[in-house]
Amino acid sequence: MKVFLCAVFFALLLLLSGCIQKVPGTPNTPYDKDASPEVTGNVNLPDSQLLDCDWTLHVDQTIPVTVDGLTVEYTLVLIAQKAGGTDVNGTYEGAAYIGAKLDISSISNEVIAAFGGFDMNVFANNIVFDVVPYDIEEYSDYGVPQGEIGISPLIEYESMALLSPEMTGGGVLNPSVFGIQGEHMEYHDAASGTQAVPMKIAIMSGSVSVSVPSFKIGHSFEGTVLGDPQPGQYQQAIARIEELIEQSEEEPGDGASGGFDFGDLIGQFIGE
Asked: What does the DSSP assignment read for 180-193?
C-alpha cells in the first residue's frame, strides 16, 4: 500500500510540477504580475553623469501555484553584492535559498482527512556569478533539458546572469490520508544532499527577474538591483536565509537518510 501511495503521490507532483536610489515594493510577498517597481539614479543617465556605486541584487518572494485545489508554495531568497562600477554588470558574490512546500490538508472533507505533503529546502552561501550584457539565445537555452526548446522572453532585457550553484539541503515527503470508515494510507521518507540548481537572472532598468527552469511554474521571482543600498540590507537578507534554513532543520525527518536518493526528491522540483 505504501508503494502504491508513493507512486500516486509522485504522479501528483509531476502534475504540479544604473544606481537605484529608491525602489518601492514589498519583498517576500505572493507573486504579483502587475508589480512594476519605479527606479531612479543611473538609469538612462548620460555616461558623463554616472556614479560609481557598490551594487546589491536582492530577491525575496514566494509564488503560490494552485492546481486542482492543491497549492505549492515556491520561495526564492537571493542576495549578492558587487563592489564598484557605474552599471549593474560585473561579478557578484552572495547566498541563496530555495524552498518548495505542499500541504495536502486543503483536500480534507467529510469523507477523508489529509495531512502532510512535502517540504524541500536547499541553500548555498558561496554563490559567485557574472552579470553580462543580455543575449537572448543563451538566456533562452540555458537550463533547458536536452531535447527541449527554450522559450524566448518577450522583453528585451539589458543584462543577465546564468548560474548553476551547488546547493545543499533536504526534503521530507509525508502524505497521510484517513478515510471515514477507518481507511488509512500514509508514506514518510526524507533525504538530504547536494545538487546543482540552474538559475537565470534577467535585468531591466533595475528590476530583476529570476527563473528556476526546472520549477516550470510559468512565473519568475521578482526583485531589484540597487546601487549604494541602505546600510544593513545585505546582512538582513543573510539573516533571513539563515532563519529559513533553521526552520527547515526543525522539520521532522529533514536531513535524514531515507529510502530514496535526495536527487530523486529534488529532481521533481529543481533537479535534472
From this structure: TTS-EEE--EEEEE
Q: Where are the beta strands (DSSP E) in the chain?
A: 55-67, 70-82, 90-103, 112-115, 117-133, 159-163, 166-173, 176-179, 184-186, 189-196, 199-204, 207-211, 221-227
Burial environment of residue 206 by CB neighbours within 10 A (0 to 12, 13 to 18, 19 or more): buried
Instruction: Output the pLDDT for position 44.
Output: 52
Span of 100-114, 198-212, 241-255 with lowest mean pLDDT? 241-255
Please state, in angstroms and as integers, the Cα–Cα distance from residue 267 to each residue in 10, 51, 123, 247, following that order.
11, 44, 15, 22
Q: Which three cell numbers stand for residue 246?
A: 533553521
- pTM of this prediction? 0.75
> Distance between CA 38 and CA 25 in Å, rounded?
9
SS3 at position 268: coil
Looking at the DSSP assignment, which residues form a beta bridge with residue 82?
55
User: Could you tell me if 268 and 122 are in contact, meaning their C-beta atoms sit under 8 angstroms apart?
Assistant: no
Per residue in 185-214, pLDDT tens? 888 788 788 888 899 999 999 999 999 987
